[in-house]
## 1
Amino acid sequence: MDMLYGVGDRFVVVDVETTGVYNSDRVVEVAVVTVSPRGRIVDEWDTLVNPERDVGPTHLHRVTASMVSAAPTFRDIAAALAERLNGAVLVAHNLSFDARMLVNEYGRLGGSMEAGSGVCTLRRFGRKLQDACKHQGIPFEYPHRALADARATARLFRCEPIEESPDLRPAAVVVGEATFNPRTLRREMSAEPTDEMPYLARLADRTHHYGVHGAGLVYLDLLDWVLSDLVISDAEAAQLKELAIDVGLSEAEVSMLHVQYLDELIEAAMRDGVVQQHEMAILERVSRALAVPTERVAARVGGMVRRAPVSITPGMRVCFTGAATDSDGSPIERARLIQVAVEAGLHPVDHLTKKGCDVLVAADPASQSGKARKAREYGIPICSVESFLELSRDAQSMSV
């Protein structure tokens, strides 16, 4: 049966990975899956995109600067992408976001894109993409990759028939200052980073936003991005407020959503029966960023906080894992950590073994890296970089 009822000639499922969620942010990867009026997938197309700026939260989309250094710019792919979007009814999981980012990109080229009126599977199913796919029995690997997300959204979209609606309207794209260029660079052609997501990003992946619908669900979906660095700057707060207005939320509704978002993070942190001290600190930072009293975190967590003291004394063997940063978020080179260890009378080791290492220093003590898993299995204590630097100063004074 024809699913379009004479509106356009196809559906196009689109997904973009971006440097962020704001109008100033850029696309770093785009994928489209074309679906025929009868619901059959007939074409797939995807490419990495050089955003001509910092790539943003690599821990979420897994795209690094080196991966996009040889990728086409949006100007290079604009015409080829427009051929797929123009005249199609758009489908996306959080359609307003994906459409807005593409509208902005075509606007930068002096062109234009009218997104039309398509189908938002986030609003339609009322769940985050992974949750919705799991609920519908759809296999879904590699989230936050444009083609994987688009494929999953296409399968989700086909789970329920589209009811006849006069509101469906195809997209219209005017390319602007760009000529057709068939060049693409698919993710499979570039080496992906192996560093895992930091704790908060993993925690956000475990939240569900049950009971939230419509504009509220769209807003919470964006918060996962905004809070990836645990900070909402004044500029981000202003843009987040603008996003809330765009989706029709009042200040009171936004405040309620912030409380719910924090509560979901707390629940996710408590699922393993214990909240580590560093996890508590992260939850409190999130509460401050969301303007929710930090007392709410303490009240919800109660006596579940575990403080696991780690002692460091001269002569101990220490191993490192993860990309370390200081309290301001600036990177700390591994060579610097090794130097600190040596100055404190410690013995840095490259490999973690049961009898060859006394303490593991992790950028994220909740890490699930191979070294961290071995440390837990062997009963080797794990401490944060911040704690290591403090304890090393104490050990250095002991060795003098």
## 2
Amino acid sequence: MATFIRHLWQRIRHEAGLDITRCALCAQPCPVLGTPAPPHTPPACPDCLAALRPRTGGYCLHCGELFADEALPCAPCAAC
């Protein structure tokens, strides 16, 4: 029953043009994007999603400490 009510409420909001939700990370209003998220995934705004992108370099391979420059290659830090 709760699933039916949730879907009905989403349909009403969509029909009324109220497809706005809050980002689960920063709590700012963000539009619901066209691609559906996997089930039980909290919505995130484009800015927060960009900040959460995987880091491709500039960290210690052993402990994960981040270096100041992301362009540096992955290598052990001074402590490791």
